Amino acid sequence: MPVCDNCKKKWTWRETVFSKLMLSSKAACPYCGEKQYASAKTRKRGGFMVLSVIIPMFVVLLFNFSMLFYIVFGMIIFMVVMGLSPFYYELSSKEEPLW
Where are the transmembrane segments (predicted)? Predict the structure, then answer.
């Protein structure tokens, strides 16, 4: 779980997921209120996590499964990725360049 770079308190799984769902690169720490940014390492990992959702979907299309299977399979992969993502999330007190 991520740790605030300012107050060093560990965020809960729920706080991390909700901060990610806001689709912003910054979030206020629920404990000290300071703005926290996703680290460059976390943003790079996020790109690979998106690929882990997209690539299996192409495999499903290759085997010509039904649309219902495609949707259910996609939802399951998405939920697994979203459920695991807070465990690799790291915070920074300043916005870091991606490269």
Answer: 46-63, 69-89
